[in-house]
Fold each of these.
Amino acid sequence: MRVLKPGGLCVFVEHVAAEDGTIRRFFQGILDPLQQFVADGCHFTRKTGEVIAKAVFSSVELQRAFVSSASIANPQVYGIARK
């Protein structure tokens, strides 16, 4: 947000943590240390969509999706945040 000028857009696509208590979330937690190592610090367990939604953008359009070929790296969030 700090690098956007007023009226600027942040377009994002991120994989995020699955719902707590699900088998997918369980495996994300187990595989997260390996994911950080092989994917240059990327985490399976971050709730990036929630962080973006709670930030002080003037508006956030956020959608969730599941990519069939991404299995453990689901769900995905995508959208536009405006400063």
Note: The chain has a mean pLDDT of 93.
Amino acid sequence: MSNLLKKVWESVSNRTNSNKNTPNLSSYSISHAALSDQIMMCSSSTGEFDRIPLDVFMQIVKLLQPNDVARLTAVCKLWRLIVSDNKLWMHYLQNQQVPWETIFFSEVNLRSGFPLQICSQMQSFMNIYGLRTHVPGAIIVDGGSGYCKFGWSKFDSPSGRSATFLFYMYEFGNIETPMYSRLRHFFATIYNRMQVKPSTQSIIVSVPLCQYDDTEAAKAARRQLKEAIHSALFGMNVPSVCAVSQATLALFAAKRTSGIVNIGFHQTSVVPILHGKIMRKVGVEAVGVGALKLTGYLREQMQQRNLHFDSLYTVRSLKENLCYVALDYEAELCKDTEASYEVAAAGWFTLARERFQTGEILFQPRIAGMRAMGLHQAVALCIDHCHAAELTTDESWSKTIVLSGGTACLPGLAERLEKELHGLLSPSVADGIKVLPPPYGADSAWYGAKLISNLSTFPNSWCLTKKEFRSKARSDRRNLV
């Protein structure tokens, strides 16, 4: 403790010499007036530190490492009062790699686990900081219907990607079916690539949307898929498992717990979510246009122009780097939209109208010869269903549309969808509608899982252990009898 106080006093000496150059406190700085009132009520003293101006004193405390600040609570009652102030620890949390707003959202809305419960009384941020520094982290596997992103939750981004070959629609069953063995092989492959033993870390798995209906058969299929995922992982001795819908995770990444999520690879799904739960009773709308359709349509256009390419990778690269969605399709037809891009090992390619006609099939599928409703029509239908269901007195939850998935990264998509919705819906319903672009691009669901894995209550609040899973499975079977 003497060394710690010496360190503080050295900071005092250096700080007082440059008092005039003291930087401004952050927007979350401690209220010195309020703190002064508390100090006056406290009979303890900080000793020689009483001579230091309070604003300088608080800057000194901030200069110390969080562990050193926590140890200062042992000095006296007044030190405990000062260093336990929430705003001081908010300052330390602000200096983390994760943005402060994201930390605040997750600790307020997600820390209780599912079902979500907003914390009415916020815990001490000093306690939250301490818990977050000891969170073990997790392996994250975002296994969508197109590509799988996996990695360590402490990393800034997924460490690997691979084609997802096991989550085929309507192909779920119990552990006696091939699904179980494919899952075992799939997860074993990921663990081998990451060079991690399954028994060392918890895992968060994003579950792709399947069986959209609210029928008993659809519920059973979804339950069997989750059971197969848990069984496969627990069979590999994973300590605990968290399986959450991919759409829900994408919503969390946008710092929302309620809203409508657009997501899809083989097809586009419009998913209403209230307090983290998919409202299948309201209805999940499906549009038969996804990333694969857009890539295929661009390929057809390139073939019609005799643009030669070696692989679909070339077409996909051009789609991702040159294509966009026009705010006004008819006006865009009159513009010069020609642009070029060099694809590695394939050379330069020049596209013109193909750049915006590719994304236009999301709103006018008939252009590509498909009989389906447009994305804007599906979202408007979902919003109407949400209002008719009257699930809550606050109807604003269904006016936030979060785009997710690789196709949603097309420039101009959010603006075009918002414009179309205002044209389709009545003014009273359309008022306040906001379409948000993917917060983390194609990796939004992965980052939503990252929020959960870094919670101060993880893994206890979100994960199931093998014992808990078996107990829950037995209970579910009894309820079905």
Note: The CA atoms of residues 387 and 393 lie 10 Å apart.
